[in-house]
Amino acid sequence: MKTDELIIILSNDGHPLERLWSNLALGAVVGTLVAATIFFAAIGFRPDIAQAAQTIRFLFKFAVTISLAATAVQVSFKLSRPDWDFRSSSALLIAPVLLAGAVGVELLVLPSGQWMSKLVGHNARTCMTLIPLLAIGPLICFMAALRHGAPSNPGWTGATAGLAASGIAATFYASNCNDDSPLFVATWYPIAILAVCAAGYLIGRRALKW
Amino acid sequence: MTTTSREANWTKWMRAAVAGDSGAYRQFLHAVAPYIRAIARSRCRRLGILESEAEDIVQEVLLTIHLKQGTWDHSREIGPWITAITRNKIIDVFRRRGRRIEVPIDGMMDSLQAEEERPELRPRDIDALVGKLTCHQQEIVRSISIGAASIRETAERLEMTEVAVRVSLHRALKALGALYRRSAGED
Questions:
Q1: Does residue A19 belong to the interface with chain B, where contact is any CB pair within 8 Å?
Q2: Exposed, middle or buried by CB within 10 Å (0-12, 13-18, 19+), for B103?
Q3: Closest Cα in chain A, distance from residue B142 (Å)
Q4: Short-list B35, B44, B48, B29, CA closest to B114
Q5: Is the full-model pTM beyond 0.90?
Q6: Interface size, chain A vs chain B, as Cβ–Cβ contacts under 8 Å
Q7: How do the pLDDT tens digits run along chain B, 187 residues long?
Q8: Which residues in chain B touch residue A18, judged by CB atoms under 8 angstroms apart?
Q9: Which of the two ends of chain A, N or C, has the fewest CB atoms closer than 10 A to its terminal CB?
Q10: Best of B14, B22, B71 to disrupt the A interface by mutation (most A CBs within 10 Å)?
């Protein structure tokens, strides 16, 4: 078949107006709903959430997790277009920088004798289990949506989707966990999140090829 | 024509195409094909691959542009998007042949003017891949390509509704895209 013939065929295909943006937005909304459903059905808020909500440490957890989710969603959407590259990823630094700042303040205000016990906390194992579990639903939704895209780097885009999914998962989990110290958050959350990112990378490398 | 005005035309035609103007879409595809061909040939030459393979790349890129047009952000110029699709596909094709290469994106646009007018060489991949579609899909694809027949004429000849022809054609093109990907995995 000659190229001119192919062009005739393609231009006869009308316009399959598949808007990438609406697919991605749908994926993000459905993914969040899936995580929310599982969270409220099986896990739920911590019992003392009303008092906890008065404390800065509890609230700050959400500043970190929500900014992680929001920036990673935005970056993974950008990376799903072929003409965007790594340089559009700098927003991903916001959440780590916020958390690093909070760790610094915590180390200043907390006597050094308490550092270790705050870091170890009570829920490390729960944290590392629930965040990946809650992230599965959103990750699947993001991957399904991103398959409509054409990322230049499928692996990295998958990893960013993993970051977005675990940001959503961590936001829900943070409202259950009673370890509020930035020392705990900076130690255990990243382990869980990186595991999801690694899964996202491996899935993305295969599933997001186009 | 300068690079800028050429790209401005592509963007203009593609915006019209998205709004439903299939004539503008055909014009767009005809206009970008020589550009893609020039890139593909220069890469083939540089890497010591037969230039006859360049036309296979051109066709795969055009099909990808068609199937992935939803990933173009309409508010941006289309040139960088086309370059990115072309670069990605060329990397895929050469990786299939066991070479890892870098295709620098900068300067691609400017290095191409001279050889645009040379005639295309005979491509091979697409006929083999079309042969793997279902018989019905092959019939529709061949009917529209060979006779340059419209959807309506094909529908009359095959005694189908126009909508059914459209749906089959679109499925066939998606299947063709998947076959290209799969052939990448097998080699």
A1: yes
A2: middle
A3: 9
A4: B35
A5: no
A6: 107
A7: 577 788 999 999 999 998 888 889 999 999 999 999 999 998 888 877 777 788 999 999 999 999 999 999 988 999 999 999 999 998 888 877 765 555 555 555 555 554 555 556 667 788 889 989 998 899 888 888 766 567 888 888 888 888 888 889 999 999 999 998 887 665 4
A8: 70
A9: N
A10: B71
